[in-house]
Write a structure and sequence with these properties.
Strand content of chain B: under 5%
Distance between the termini of chain B: 49 Å
Helix content of chain B: over 70%
Helix content of chain A: 10-25%
Number of strands of chain B: 0
Radius of gyration of chain A: 28 Å
Structural class of chain A: mainly beta
Strand content of chain A: 35-45%
Oligomer: heterodimer
Order of helices and strands of chain B: HHHHHHHHH
Shape of chain B: globular
Number of strands of chain A: 43
Structural class of chain B: mainly alpha
Low-confidence stretches of chain A: 29-35, 50-54, 56-68, 97-109, 597-610
Radius of gyration of chain B: 18 Å
Largest interface: A-B, 49 and 69 residues
């Protein structure tokens, strides 16, 4: 027997032991006790010194406390306290800081959130890793939320705030004064405290971007799905799975949605729980509505066995889940509509459609009709459902070639754009469909015919153009592909495309910078190993669609550190491109209106596609 | 997204399978790879290789526990890379772990395939018989390749206690293997 044999035997260890022993990878290292004691002692010493010096200074001014001196109302109740002088001093200090904030170098007046994120529903903001005001850009770099002051070709770091988790997104309130961070984490606890995911919500005061301060915090059991802010209300969606081995029906928190507001987990108050008719899993999708400013929990609702990503319209949430009639039956999706505009969540009704949804973009509410696109067992369907009766009032079934899967959907008013695709001999082929939904009694559609590659996201790019962001796999390494489509009288045509072979590019839509006004597309990428530097070519690329010449050109590519393309962000402001990566950023002057006519390798469009 | 949904994505050959796996278990995989390789670049590459291996194996595989399945792939790939990198016999964390476990058995020159299976089976029965705390520490040390400091922090224990638990558990393993007649 070799001495390695015992070690090698661990390869065959029962997975349940591996699962039980999984470490808590978020747990911070505690500093040694001595260090903590010294730190605490130092803080106390500083505080005492400050108070003593402050008191001496006050006395040196020769003042007997004038009984008629105005004492602020907020501290009058403490006048009899033996520490009243300390209270007055501290109160005056904090008040003076507030005044400093009002008269600051950034000017008085409203700070406002200037939208960067390409939200699905106008007026319903989605969390992101980048937000901005007219003076600052806030960027979430891993665990660190950075506050950068914009200064032309420079960015000046004004403040930062550290979080416990690496998985964070955030909102900036409409007035720019509150940042709400949504943070994902999990805990393994002890053998008595079973493993569970939780989502942390942290409210920060950003009225002074040089001093980000925590205002409130809470934790919700469950894995973060998504969040929205609309009209000053934060809606958080989490997915909480209940494990059979963890259930103790005499302890409600083991099987019901729960929240920790600083005093341990308690079940959600007054939580309405809707169960899917067909239970295919033990997962709740929980919706919670908070006041954005102070995280007061206002209402909540949980949908059991509705585990798809919810779609949120201006006033409704559409939960969705597996609606198959039996385990081996054709795929179906159950949709549950909930109104969130009132004081409580109100269940409006439900519907069921064939097929399954790709993501939140597969649904859209427009003038009282819910439009849904699904992948079925053999093709793809489009449904129009009345939100009064929850009956199907129109549909187009089987519009995609056999075997194709829906890869991306975009609704825009009475138009719908769908990309379906399938792989044939390691090559992806996809048509893109344009639907006209203006007359539901006569839905018409056109398509591009089969073209190579597929689009994972479709973006209306103005002036009748549609941008497809996706990939092309011609049997070799996957290439990035950006393609512009437009509608002609009887079909959809590809106008131009841009491919970058053999690179890694972002998975998530939010990681792409979409600037419709300037027709820009930005994204992080890497792909080539540099033998000299011994690292990959981490970079950021900006493409521009030149509508006049109907071509896509590469405006710039700059080195930008960070392997995670989905975490990189960019924004164009007043002639400068600000790009953010991992512990890195770049500021590049760009004239988006006077682009160089020099062309990169843009593939010519074959005549048959024109 | 729960594990079943993610595995279904693999079976549907949907590209979002990788994204969802990364979202849910990306840190977990990096943690394992970093413990073995102590190199961020190598760990990231192993992470990518893990996704590729998972993509190629599902279907036909349909694991009951995705996390440990993915974790095992990552651990094996990390070990391969570690061994390749340490061919010069630098003394890394894996060598330390092997030496610790080698206390439990004598070293002979012969390799017995059937014996390897018996050892694996015996190891699982031994680990099942440990109490929860000791099992957790033992697996964290020799499967996750955590340092004793990491284990102490994770279990809110003193490092010396971890070392003692590991020592005693290895002694128990030696006794167990003797009784099982796993080696002569």
């Amino acid at each position: 027997m070799r001495k390695n044999d015992i070690f090698d035997a661990f390869e065959s260890l029962d997975p349940k032991f591996v699962e039980e022993a999984a470490p808590n990878i978020n747990k911070k290292a505690k500093r040694p006790l001595a260090f903590r004691l010294i730190a605490i002692a130092a803080c106390i010493a500083l505080l005492v010194t400050g108070v003593v010096v402050g008191t001496l200074l006050l006395n040196r001014e020769g003042d007997q406390q004038d009984a008629t001196d105005e004492i602020p109302e907020r501290i009058k109740q403490y006048q009899d306290s033996e520490y009243f002088e300390v209270i007055k001093t501290l109160d005056a200090y904090f008040e003076s800081r507030k005044k400093d904030k009002v008269v600051n170098e950034y000017g008085e007046g409203d700070i406002q959130n200037i939208q960067i994120t390409d939200n699905q529903t106008p007026g319903v903001e989605e969390a992101d890793k980048i937000k901005r005001t007219d003076t600052h850009i806030f960027y979430m770099d891993g665990k660190c939320l950075n506050s950068y002051r914009i200064d032309g070709d420079k960015l000046l770091l004004d403040d930062y705030y550290f979080l416990d988790s690496y998985e964070n997104e955030f909102f900036l309130s409409a007035d720019g004064k509150t940042i709400t961070v949504i943070s994902e984490a999990d805990t393994y606890g002890s053998p008595d405290q079973p493993y569970f995911d939780y989502t942390e919500v942290i409210s920060l005061d950003s009225s002074d971007p040089k001093r980000l301060k925590e205002k409130a915090r809470c934790r919700v059991k469950g894995e973060f799905i998504s969040a929205r802010v609309t009209n000053g209300k934060l809606m958080l969606f989490v997915s909480q799975r209940v494990y059979e081995g963890q259930i103790n029906f005499s302890k409600h928190e083991t099987y019901l949605p729960a929240i920790d507001r600083g005093n341990g987990y308690e079940i959600l108050p007054d939580c309405e729980i809707i169960c899917n008719e067909r239970m295919t899993n033990s997962t709740y999708t929980v919706a919670l509505a908070f006041d954005e400013n102070d995280l007061t929990l206002e209402k909540n609702i949980a949908a059991l066995s509705y585990s798809g990503d919810p779609y949120v319209s201006e006033d409704k949430i559409f939960f969705n889940g597996d609606g198959r009639l039996a385990a081996n039956a054709m795929p179906r999706t159950n949709i549950l509509a909930v109104d969130y505009s009132g004081e409580k969540f109100e269940v409006l009704g439900s519907a069921s459609v064939h097929g399954y949804l790709k993501d939140q973009w597969s649904m859209d509410e427009h003038e009282g009709i819910l439009r849904v696109v699904t992948t079925t067992k053999t093709s793809a369907d489009l449904y129009c459902i009345s939100l009064d009766s929850f009956e199907e009032i129109a549909s187009v079934k089987g519009f995609a070639p056999e075997g194709e899967v829906v890869h991306s959907v975009r609704f825009d008013g009475t138009n719908a754009y769908v990309c379906t695709a399938k792989q044939v001999a390691n090559v992806e082929l996809d048509p893109v469909f344009f639907f006209d939904l203006s007359d539901l009694n006569n839905i018409t559609y056109k398509d591009t015919g089969t073209i190579k590659g597929l689009s994972n996201s479709l973006v209306d790019f103005g002036d009748g153009y549609l941008l497809g962001i996706g990939q092309y796999n011609g049997g070799g390494p996957t290439a990035f592909k950006a393609e512009i489509y437009k509608e002609t009288e009887d079909r959809v045509v590809s106008v131009c495309k841009y491919e970058i072979p053999a690179i890694i590019f972002p998975f998530t839509y939010k990681a792409y910078y979409i600037d419709r006004e300037n027709q820009l597309l930005g994204f992080g990428r890497w792909g080539v190993w540099d033998e000299v530097t011994e690292k990959y070519d981490y970079s950021y690329t900006i493409l521009k669609f030149d509508a006049e010449n109907e071509q896509i050109i590469e405006l710039l590519t700059v080195e930008l550190n960070g392997r995670d393309n989905d975490a990189k962000r960019c924004v164009y402001i007043d002639g400068y491109m600000y790009m953010f990566g991992e512990n890195d950023y770049k500021v590049v002057p760009v004239d988006v209106d006077n682009i160089d006519a020099e062309q990169p390798d843009t593939e010519e469009i074959p005549d048959e596609q024109k | 997204m729960d594990d079943k949904q993610i595995i279904d994505l693999f079976w549907q050959r949907s590209e979002s399978a990788i994204a969802e796996t990364d979202k849910k278990y990306g840190r977990y995989i990096l943690y394992i790879a970093n413990n073995l390789l102590s190199d961020g670049e190598d760990a990231r590459e192993v992470q990518n290789d893990t996704y590729l291996r998972a993509w190629n194996s599902m279907p036909p595989e349909y694991p009951t526990r995705l996390r440990s399945y993915i974790g095992a792939i990552c651990r094996n790939l990390s070990l391969d890379r570690y061994r390749k990198r340490n061919a010069e016999k630098r003394r890394g964390c894996v060598d330390v772990a092997i030496d610790e476990l080698a206390e439990c058995i004598p070293d002979t020159k012969e390799r017995d395939e059937a014996e390897s299976e018996r050892i694996a089976d015996a190891l699982n029965r031994f680990v099942a018989g440990l109490d929860a705390r000791d099992r957790r520490i033992f697996v964290q040390r020799y499967w996750y390749m955590c340092s004793t400091e990491q284990i102490a922090r994770d279990n809110s224990m003193n490092r010396n206690t971890v070392t003692t638990v590991l020592y005693r558990t290895r002694e128990k393993l030696r006794t167990f293997l003797e009784k099982e007649g796993v080696f002569i």
